[in-house]
Amino acid sequence: MLKIKKGGVHPHDEKESTEHKKIEALPVPSKLFIPLRQHIGEPAVPVVKAGDMVKKGQVVAESPDGRATPVHSSTSGKVAEIGNYMHPLYGLSPCVVIESDGLDEWQENLLTERNWETLSNAEMIDIIFKNGIVGMGGAGFPTHIKLSPPKDKQIDTLIVNGAECEPYLTSDYRMMMEFSDEVIKGTLITMKILNVKTCYIGIEHNKPDAIKLLTEKCKGTPIQIVELETRYPQGAEKMMIKVITGREVPSGKLPMDVGCAVQNIGTLKAITEAVEKNIPLIERVVTVAGKTVKDPKNLMVKLGTPFKEMFEYCGGFIAPNGKIIMGGPMMGMAQVNLESVVIKAASGIVSIADNDVDYQPEKACIRCGRCVEVCTMGLRPNILSILSEKGQHQTAQTDYDLMDCVECGCCYYVCPSRRNIVHYIRQSKAKNAMLRAAAKTGSK
Ligand code: SF4
Ligand code: SF4
Fold first, then answer.
1. 75 alpha carbon to ligand 1 midpoint, in Å?
2. Mode of pairing for the β-strands spanning 333-334 and 321-326
């Protein structure tokens, strides 16, 4: 049994540079590079070709299997090419490149007005699929699948993750403040689809305005607001479930195995817009922050926008960068350059100043035990890293619950030997996945 314990760390939240600024719309870039892979699963398959004219919201790539989600054009213009460009997670990857015509015109007859209360669950799930909704908190899991659990899994509780525990990120907070009606309606829609009567929105107590606003607006609904301690990684799914419901997701199991579903703030807003207006997921709120950014902001950005356009809009840089990270500094992904583009799961882009990057070489483990103390999943990160170094990846899985690691980075954060524990853990996970795949196909 996995033992979730308190653990966690308290990095400075660094949110003050953007938390009180209203979301601004980034002007439409002249070129958008829309990745075909913006979800877990197979990449979408292009249904347009170079030279085609497209409108905003038009499908440019279809799901190959009904599980992966379709991809839509974020603006109107001409398809310049289907080519390989920088994806923030996968490096050079296929993208539909759209040259904007500057008009930003919706596809004709796309938008509509619907009352979700008159729709069946099957109709709403189909709408959510067709509008390309995925988990926008970082995982990119297709939402229509999450809303269709197997019949033997009885879900009774919906948890909305408003923790936003990563330093610098404030996009969820700004959405709770500026799109609270959409977030609440998306929550009610999700409750109806999952047929649950209990729902909690968990928000860390460093966001008192959001707690106050949502508490007020949720009066008379079955939604309860839960104030959470500010502590990283409070927003990790298994942590939230434990803290809010007291239930522990067993090792190797999913939230649905303990009757819970967890949804992200941005995803709920997207669900409302899809179900009520038929608006596909073509833009999102992204925090652009970091100590080197001249004027950090939260931007409403079209999917496929290169990061460099966002930094330019924020006044550029005032000091040399050591790293650019998509997501937060604890769990985010370091970028090779600023050509990477915004995808559905990009909650933020954070610059880390060169003099803030820790370039110390890794040393041997001194068995201080700090990583064990902070690991919220109750793991032994020191042992996992050593097993990975020795190539004992399967032992890490069978004897030390490797797969329960949520890659939060708390262990690395406190390690005096600067051991790249998360890197080792990812290596072991990847190695074991390769071994499983090889066993399935019978290859060696
Ligand atoms: S990254 Fe994994 S091992 Fe390290 S503290 Fe987080 S859950 Fe534990
Ligand atoms: S914190 Fe670092 S040095 Fe200490 S036990 Fe963990 S891996 Fe070893």
1. 40
2. antiparallel
Residue among 358, 363, 368 to mutate when testing ligand 2 (max atoms within 8 A of CB): 368
Cβ 411 under 6 angstroms from ligand 1? yes
Do the first three CATH levels of 24-100 and 116-277 match, i.e. the same topology? no
Ligand nearest to the CA of 364: 2
What is the pLDDT at residue 5? Answer: 56
Give nearest CA residue, ligand 2 atom 2. 415
In this structure, which residue's CA is closest to atom 1 in ligand 2? 415
3-state secondary structure of 431: helix
Asked if residue 207 has its Cβ within 6 Å of ligand 2, the reply is no
Structural domain 24-100, CATH architecture: Beta Barrel (2.40)
Please determine, for residue 357, whether its predicted confidence score (pLDDT) is greater than 50.
yes
Asked if residue 382 has its Cβ within 6 Å of ligand 2, the reply is yes
The whole-chain average pLDDT of the chain stands at: 94
Question: Considering the chain, what percentage of its residues have pLDDT values greater than 90?
Answer: 86
Number of continuous H segments (helices) and E segments (strands) in the chain:
13, 17
Is the Cα torsion angle 207, 211, 217, 222 positive or negative in sign? positive
Q: Domain 116-277 belongs to what architecture?
A: 3-Layer(aba) Sandwich (3.40)
Q: List beta partners, residue 232.
A: 9
Q: Whose CA is nearest to atom 8 of ligand 1?
A: 375
**168, 167, 163: which is closest to 11 by C-alpha?**
167
Which amino acid is residue 425, in one-letter code? I
Nearest CA to ligand 1 atom 3: 381
The whole-model pTM stands at: 0.92
Average pLDDT over residues 250-276: 95
Tell which residue, 268, 264, 290, has the closest CA to residue 139: 264
Lowest mean pLDDT among 65-69, 242-246, 339-343: 65-69
What is the per-residue pLDDT for 433? 87
Q: What is the pLDDT of residues 216-235, one digit of tens each?
A: 999 999 999 999 999 999 88
Does ligand 2 come within 6 angstroms of the Cβ of 380? no
408 band by pLDDT with thresholds 50, 70 and 90: very high
Distance in Å from the first CA to the final CA of the chain: 32
Indicate the domain borders of the chain.
24-100, 116-277, 370-441
Question: pLDDT tier at 2 (50, 70, 90 boundaries)?
Answer: very low
